[in-house]
Amino acid sequence: MHEWGQMRQRGTAGLFQYWNRLRNGRPAPRRTEIDPADIKTMLADTFILERDLRGDAVFRLAGTRLCATFGRELKGFAFTSLWTHADQTRAARLALGTLTDKAVTVTTLLGTTAGGRSLDLELLLLPLEGGAENPRAMGALCPAEKPYWLGADPIVQCQVDGVRTIDPDREPRSGQGMLQVEAPPLAPGEAALEGRPARRFRHLVVIEGGRNR
After folding, report:
1. Does 113 map to a domain?
2. Domain harbouring 34, CATH code
3. In a domain, 190, yes or no
4. Count of CB atoms within 10 A of residue 164's CB?
């Protein structure tokens, strides 16, 4: 029996609810159905992953607060670069499980800063339908709290605390023990995440380029 302990942060819970409604019973929504305007309050902690020519998961886009948390622009960097050396193989499996097998996972992390501070984080990974040749995943990485030093003392590595695989079809609906968040409205197609020239939204820039869909 699933309890609503799967996601503890409002940002990850809200993004999951939006994604789950948008897929409408399918394994995943198409990436062109994701409208940044729909999730503008979540964009600062949201990211998109793709596979590079070596088959590794890399950041295609990353929100501004997420980049500030790690003290660098994440676009183009490997997903595994956020993790301790001991957890990089596990992180790679998590990302590729979502990219290739459409797995939905929630991971609790402990982030450590250059100054020796630590912070609990929650990572959500969600698949997007992009075809076998061009898989994508989206996700959110949200801190459990926002201390005064967040963004000034960057996190330099993350360590896995726990991983949970989610069956979206068995998750409780809003009002059934679910963390109560205001899920964004569905308005797909008006401003798709990819396929248009660069546009700036509140926290994220969508840049034209990369491989064809």
Report:
1. yes
2. 3.30.450.20
3. no
4. 13
Which residue type, as a one-letter code, is found at position 40?
Answer: K
Q: Scan for tokens 């967040």, then name that residue.
A: 150
Over the stretch 108-139, which tens digit does the pLDDT of each residue have? 999 999 899 999 999 999 999 977 678 899 99
Structure tokens at 16: 């999951």
Please report whether residue 199 resides in a domain.
no
CB atoms within 10 A of CB 179: 18
User: Are 58 and 49 spatial neighbours (Cβ–Cβ below 8 Å)?
Assistant: yes
The rounded Cα 56 to chain-centroid distance in angstroms is 16
In a domain, 204, yes or no: no
Please name which of 86, 94, 157, 170 lies closest in space to residue 121, comparing C-alpha atoms: 157
> Which DSSP letter does residue 193 get?
S
- Condensed to tens digits (0 to 9), the pLDDT of residues 24-35 reads 999 999 988 999
Amino acid identity of residue 157, one-letter, is: Q
Map residue 21 onto helix, strand or coil. helix
CA distances (Å), origin 84, targets 75, 158, 196: 19, 6, 36
Choose among 194, 47, 203: nearest CA to 126.
47
- Residue 144: φ, ψ to 5°: -70, -25
pTM comes to 0.79
Pair 135, 51: CB distance under 8 Å: yes
Q: Which of 133, 137, 141 is nearest to 19 (CA)?
A: 137
CB 47 within 8 A of CB 74: yes
